[in-house]
Amino acid sequence: xxxxxxxxxxxxxxxxxxxxxxxxxxxxxxxxxxxxxxxxxxxxxxxxxxxxxxxxxxxxxxxxxxxxxxxxxxxxxxxxxxxxxxxxxxxxxxxxxxxxxxxxxxxxxxxxxxxxxxxx
Length: 120
Description:
Layout: E1 6-9, H1 15-28, E2 34-38, E3 44-49, H2 53-66, E4 76-79, H3 88-99
Antiparallel strand pairs: 1-3, 1-4, 2-3
């Protein structure tokens, strides 16, 4: 699987249509460089885009709120800041790196959504 910084969900069987919709959305946001890959899970795509994925999702949300009928296949966009192996040492190291980016007096939450893993 490619390195990715965006997870996109769609209905099962609509992955190709969803990817085309993302391309239209990215073009409208002036994001030129975006690559996609299917995962082994139906309805789940990953993408790599140049730039900040969090800002991309914020901007995409505004576009989609202004014209909700233009987007039929994108269900959810999830920005990804760090990807690591599902092993405790790797996860601890990734978390240390991310915690340094969090401003003082802020809070954060770690969520693990797992598919096809034995991680408990």
